[in-house]
Amino acid sequence: MTVPERHSFQVILERDEAGYFVAECLTFRACYAQGKTCAEVLANIRDVLELSARQVKEGGRILPHRSEIIGIERIEVTL
């Protein structure tokens, strides 16, 4: 029996115009989830991450390099 591997991924959380929470993981291309609450979006993105990682591993590929989020900056522009 194989012992399951544990992996951790950083996730960016935002709130959209409609009030929904949106989560994005930069490690996988197009890895997004949304939910009405923070708890819901975290559960949803966990499901997406598990599916994405499983597909990579089952395809015989190595998980992509995990990007490290080092900060978020607010930039203002004048139009």
How would you sum up this structure in a few lines?
The chain has a domain of 47 residues.
What does this structure look like?
By secondary structure, this protein is an alpha+beta fold. It has a domain at 12-58. Helices cover 27% and strands 15% of the residues. It has one helix and three strands. It has one helix at residues 38-58; strands at 12-15, 21-24, 32-35. The chain has a three-stranded antiparallel β-sheet with strand order 1-2-3, with helices on one face. β2 and β3 (32-35) form a beta hairpin. 9% of the residues are buried. The model has no long low-confidence stretch (mean pLDDT 91).
Q: Which structural class matches the secondary elements?
A: alpha+beta
Strand order of the biggest β-sheet: 1-2-3
Indicate the proportion of strand residues: 15-25%
Helix content: 25-40%
Low-confidence parts lasting 5 or more residues at pLDDT below 50?
A: none
Rg is: 15 Å
Mean pLDDT: 91
How widely separated are the two ends? 60 Å
User: Tally the helices: what do you get?
Assistant: 1
Largest sheet: 3 strands, antiparallel
Net shape: globular
Q: Can you write the helix and strand succession as a string? A: EEEH
How many β-strand stretches? 3
